[in-house]
Protein: ABC transporter ATP-binding protein
Amino acid sequence: MKLTVDGLHVTLDHQPILRDVSLDAAQGDIVGLIGPNGSGKSTLLRAVYRSLRPAQGVVRVAGDDVWKLPARTAARRTAAVLQDSNSNAVGLCVQEIVALGRTPHHGLLGRDGAEDHRAVAEAMDACGARPLAERDFASLSGGERQRVLLARALAQKPKLLVLDELTNHLDIRARFELLDLIRGTGTTTLAVLHDLDLAARLCDHLVVLNEGVVAAAGKVLDVLTPDVLREVFGVRAVAERHADGVIRITYGADPLALHDTTTDPAASAASAEPSDRTPPAPVPPAHPAPLTPTEHEAQAPVPG
Structure:
């Protein structure tokens, strides 16, 4: 399933939020949306999953304009996990939360059939949520909740996953576990990510938004250049693929680039690389000048 966003413009309160935004996500690709706060990332997600109608442009999922599809058909194709996805989960156990993912297939008043039960069970197994099935959702840790919300999205059997900062407020292990889960779904995914290192690890392609426009887009190393890191994110850093195949970002000893006047990308990258050179030996003090006769007499030992 392919996602295509073409020439998207979004306006809120007569203010342009997104201007001429375009991107593509091929079948099975994970595309990361990155950029400073207020750059329009979450607004773009809302336009993709039909929460906010664009003023201009087209969002296509599997070749169809999502805003021309019946609401239920569109909901079957796209599942969203948002930062406030648990706001309506009071008093529900985990299995009930995951089962809500089947709502687009039969409505709120429809009865779950064998296919629904199978989809819920498969999603819970995929996310390691089966042991939590009878737990009250409100009693779960942050990492457990995100697992359950991802399971709910997968139970929907979507063609497209839309994720808004899914790893926020999670500890390190929970973050990596979620990354593995997302990668393991094989579902085309559009994800807003705050952590650039996690974005570099997880994503096949990145789209950088800055002040409502696309500042860069493409493969990870083509996007996370010293210029982009400096000009968009305000840091001096370099992204490199290491021997283990993982792309990592190394920040300069003085990472803030707000007042950096460097314009040469090679020089900027070099300044971000950790130095492995042996520090220069200290310069020995200059040989003292010979004493004058008067000074020599002053320092002569006094006879006993």
